[in-house]
Amino acid sequence: MTLYVEVKNLHKRFGSFEASRDVSFGIEKGKLVGLLGPSGSGKTTILRMIAGLEQPDSGEIYIDGKKVNDVPPGKRGIGFVFQSYALFRHMTVYENIAFGLKVQKEDKQKIKHRVAEMIALIGLDGLEKRYPHQLSGGQRQRVAFARALAPNPQLLLLDEPFAAIDAKVRKELRSWLKQMIKRLGVTSIFVTHDQDEAVEVADEIIVTHQGSLEQKGTPVEIYKTPKTPFVANFIGESELIADCAQFIAYRNQPAGTKAIVRPEFLEIGKLDEPLNHSASDKGVVTDIAFRGTAWHVTVKVGEATLTGYRSLELSPLSVGEQVFVLIHRLYLLQGNETNIVENDLKTDPMPVFI
Amino acid sequence: MSNKKRSVIPGFGLSMGFTLSYLSILILIPLSTIFMRTVNMGWDSFFKTVLNPRVLASYQVSFGCAFTAALTNTIFGLIIAWVLVRYDFPFKRIVDGLIDLPFALPTAVAGIALTTLYAQNGWVGKFLYAFGIQSAYSTTGITIALIFIGIPFVVRTVQPILEELEPQVEEAATMLGANRNTIFLKTILPELIPPLLTGFALAFARGIGEYGSVVFISGNMPMKTEIAPLMIMSKLEQYDYAGATAIAMVMLFISFLMLLVINIIQWHTNKFLKV
Amino acid sequence: MTKKSIGTEPKLVRWLLIGITVIFLLLMLCLPLMMIFSQAFKKGLNVYFAAVSDKNTLSAVQLTLIATLIAVLLNTIFGLFAAWAISKFTFKRKNLLITLIDLPFSISPVIAGLVFVLAFGRNGVFYEFLYAHDIKIIFALPGIILATIFVTFPFVARELIPLMQAQGTAEEEAAASMGANGWTIFSKITMPNIKWGLLYGIILCSARAMGEFGAVSVVSGHIRGKTNTLPLQVEILYNEYQFSAAFAVASLLVFIAILTLILRNIIEWQGKKHKG
Question: What range defines the domain where residue A98 resides?
């Protein structure tokens, strides 16, 4: 396993704002990595430091084994796709894509050939002479992509590549981009604040929060075994429980232990349904909402309010009804760590699918 | 002019009516007297006045100095706008506010101040005359006055465009390996050419017509430093209304041409501004 | 986050450009300003105040103020109507109308004066009529006012049009749909949004009106104590080699100019604050 990009102990502050604190990670060659975090979490700063558009206050950046801290941005072999594309608006599609090759003084024939290749790749044949203002948002995005890739970079960085596109085109463009990157095999890092996007597109996700790296892993790892309270809370739907010892299955936890629960960890059943009653708590339904594929049921259990799904196939619940709530597992928040605890009262041999 | 979309807001008829009447009575009808007079005077006498050597010389002085001043202002205006937008330095706000001085300062006041400053014994003139530069009572002096008058036009047209340029575009060029010179020439300058041309045209148009700041420093020597507006003035003093009208007609023509140029530039840029 | 941290010029180039800017502005703008005050006070405060309180100067001040007041008032009313028509309604040839409003900017002030001489002066279209009724326009106050209006015509409208266009019509339409009449809409909805821009337009218009030289020079006839405005008084004193007096009177106009610039900055700052 060779690391293509490696950053070590990156620090960066803007005035009193700490954009990066001690960020370290490595990315393997050919991987498509998503930098995920809420806005202001420092993800774009990390991307810009790798590109050389910002200088870190301290820390090292290696690309292909070479330290690049002092290499100017244009010489790092990086293609960069900007959030608003930053196309040169007085240049045609052709000139935009050719720009990087021209400043590198490539041979004219070669430029022509390469640009034609890129235009074919992004499927904009016939639009070479158009100006950016004559293109749709999705087409501009493709041109920005082609422009970044034309000089054949070994690393592609994308800053919120889908943020400026309307929702309908976005989905289509996401899978197009993923396919394209996989086909070219170029190592890529993209920044996003949208977890669906990260989960759908990335091989690996790096979650950042307040300038720090919270967790790095495959989408499934991030989802199933969040390592920090932030990740547990940020990824997926989640609810914070102030004291998990109130639930029967977790009575052995110290009082006041905080926990995070996801809707899919819950099973909600009528009093007469065959649910493992000894492992469940009793609660009262306070709200029921139809969400297309399932009922979203809100239940009050003691002091806590929990939300779970209930299949449309089962007989519907009503507000005020007493129910059993089976909590299959919880993420316990213990300091800066998160640990998963299973419901240990479930002796029921029936397998449970979540 | 018709109200295409019916609007719920009242007052279209009143405001449009007032606007058009006021505009017509105070600007358009008075201006049209120049055209009518020109037509009435006949082409013969028109060309006789306009092609008079002294008048031709005054056009040459006016256009020549206005052109040189506008060109100088285009270069310095670009530098000043660039510095004001991109760099930080002490007293920047005051410097920025000062740019509008020529807009606010009466032209006659500017005229006598510049004359005193650039005359042979003036604070600046002293040094220039020592190097053999006759900075007052010459076309150089006229050009200096027109530079003073024109500088805000270029700065104030270029500045907002420069402010709105997206830093990302320059970063994109950087990522593609372009150096500072290439970035400036290929990505920034093309964006600035329309406002620079507009600023140039505005400064040039103003320079041709400028009177107050120029008459003092020009020295008004026939065939040498007489400007076109001064020719109108002296024709009027001799009650030669036809002569004054003919000269004014030519200047008006140039003004309209400049307006047309400016409008074409604006229209052309607006097309590209959508991205 | 900082706007940009890369992509700036080397330090040397940066300071060179700043240096050019400072020297250029010093030579072209600061020195003339300092020159005026230095000349005005050269012969002491007594000479200064004597020049400023001279009979002819005072009557010039009076004439200038009257002409300015009337011209600015009319141009302000026009500016409001024109901006209302242009920004709140759609109609054909709107750009042509805007260009026509801008027209006086690109016309020589001397021509501005000339057109009124052609209309009302000897030989003028209306001369017979005016002569018969003993109405004096040229070489009299009405001519000065007309010339001033012509030259300062676009200022208020030009400030208001972009401002009101940017604000759109939604608020006015909402008020109209609730049954407000035109005056209520204007005074309660539009006016609070444009007051700073309007104020600046009026100030700029006033400064230019007071300082107008070329156009007024053509129509005034230079009658001392009667049709001399402040800038004309400056010219006369200067041409009579009374330099200190000329600069003293000029300094009055400079104060107004500087006040205009300061107000401009305050208003700009206020406008930004109110926008958000």
Answer: 3-227
- Is A223 found in the same domain as A117? yes
Q: What is the CATH number of the domain that holds A279?
A: 2.40.50.140
Amino acid identity for residue A84 in this structure: S
Closest Cα in chain B to A52? B175
Reported as a single tens digit per residue, the pLDDT across A163-179 is 878 888 888 888 888 99
A133 with B175: Cβ contact below 8 A? no
Alpha-carbon distance A104 to nearest alpha carbon in chain C (angstroms): 18
Determine the Cα–Cα distance for residues A177 and A198; give it in Å rounded to an integer.
13
For residue A142, being part of any structural domain is answered with yes
Task: Look at residues A343, A340, A317, A320 and name the one whose alpha carbon lies nearest to residue A247.
Answer: A343
Q: Is C169 at the interface with chain B, CB within 8 A?
A: yes
A145 and A273 together in one domain: no
Tell me which DSSP letter residue B3 carries: B
Give the tokens for residue A310. 């209930």
The residue ranges of every structural domain in chain B are: 57-227
- CATH homologous superfamily of domain B57-227? MetI-like (1.10.3720.10)
**How much is the ipTM here?**
0.89
Residues pairing with A326 in the sheet: A267, A280
A122 and A168 within one domain = yes
- Measured in angstroms, the CA of A75 and the nearest CA of chain B are apart by 6
Chain B contact present for A83, CB below 8 A? yes
Per CB-CB distance under 8 Å, the chain C contacts of A54 are: 5-6
Phi-psi region of B106 (alpha: psi -120 to 50; beta: other; left: phi over 0): beta
**Is B182 part of the contact surface with chain A (CB cutoff 8 Å)?**
yes
- Of A139-143, A339-343, B19-23, B48-52, the range with the lowest mean pLDDT is A339-343
* Sheet containing A58-63, strands listed edge to edge, beginning at the edge strand earlier in sequence: A17-28, A3-14, A58-63, A66-67
Q: Can you give the CATH number for the domain in which A91 is found? A: 3.40.50.300
Residue A150 vs residues A95, A173, B177: alpha-carbon distances, Å: 11, 19, 12
Q: What is the pTM of this model?
A: 0.86
- As a whole number of angstroms, the distance between CA A340 and CA A312 comes to 29
